What we know:
Helix content is about 30%, strand content about 30%. It is α+β, with helices and mostly antiparallel strands and about 425 residues long.
Amino acid sequence: MPADFDTIVNLATKRGFVFQSSEIYGGLRSAYDYGPLGVELLRNVKEQWWRSMVQLREDVVGVDTAVIQSPLVWVASGHVASFSDPLVECKVCHNRFRLDKLEDPNRCPECGSSDSFTEPRAFELMFKTHMGPVASEENIVYLRPETAQGIFINFENVRRTARKKLPFGIAQIGKSFRNEITPGQFVFRTREFEQMEMEYFCRPEDADEWFQYWLEARRDWYLDLGMSEDNLRLRPHATDELSHYSSGTYDVEYLFPWGWDELEGIANRTDFDLKAHAEMSGQDLRYFDAERNERFYPYVIEPAAGATRTTFAFLIDAYHTETVRGETRAVLRLDARLAPIKVAVLPLSKKEELISVSRELADSLRPHWMIEHDITQSIGRRYRRQDEIGTPYCVTVDFDTLDDRQVTVRERDSMAQDRIPIDRLISYLADRLP
Ligand code: GAP
């Protein structure tokens, strides 16, 4: 059964994963801030993506391009002309909806009125602002709605400087902005979010094969990080769903509490973008194959994931409750690579002689992992808190420690406990943690 939505939102806000943005001013709808635990989880998700997509691959390099680019980029890419959603307004309650997301296009889901919608109009999804001191039509710029275009416009720079031959990929993680009509479901759909995208350039005749390859590789990434296979599926887009640049797309979907929804899109973007930028800029962006003595536009396979959305899915997927000795325990069974805190160090009581040992121990572990030194509340409550935030190991310093220089290590999922000498603790944990 998928986890209950309210429970996850409650956990996320109560434990400091995610806060409503501008909360002290009443909150800004559809923007969120990541708290001390959320920022670690989000960083770990991005780190794992980068490791699998860039670090471990000979054929992929990374970039970090500007959020604000020449407005011509968005003309060439087709976003200025066609990056919009069909918007309708209910003439009775004045709520606005995306026409393509309505269950019944003739009935308002808010007030129930029939045939009360205005004619659909295209709602521009890009955020506009002005560059420079004067706000005029000439200096309109956009906040990027996808990180991908920063990669396409640097194709030749990267190919030349990284000395890459086809097939090769360029990866990027960064913020994107979309003025969504219907943001919602917590951090699932927001107006400011983070993406993890990779453009894989290949010979046109090899594109189908690489498309299949990336479908499988991306699905395996989620599974390898512990996402439940039952909650993950690949769904092909129907022809009328395809983006303007795509000849074929699959979504990696997750079974969210409200049903199946998109985590990542994997698209065959063909040579649409490179050709469009070559035409708009006047630069020759064709690839030269010296062995075959031919010049052509490569095709592009694009796995495009949401970092914030994926982080949310990992949080939901890891959440479990179970009964232990008659009590309900909530535990986040996050893969240790994703867990925000790897080890909690807990003195059994607030006695100064225990705290000085546990603090010293925590300090000795900090260069290796994210550590929490927690001296508040009863030991039982502290264990429960660490379970609920997904900490794989708790190390407890008790009064015997003062004599035998040993500590108790408790593993999160099995709750099994080992007594370990302090001078062997780092190697014990290193055998079990990333
Ligand atoms: N470059 C292709 C592209 O941007 P997309 O399917 O529109 O494709 C890719 O976006 C991923 O970015 C989505 O699968 C989703 O995970 C994430 N994403 C898109 N819009 C989002 C939003 N408003 N809030 C959070 N994540 C979003």
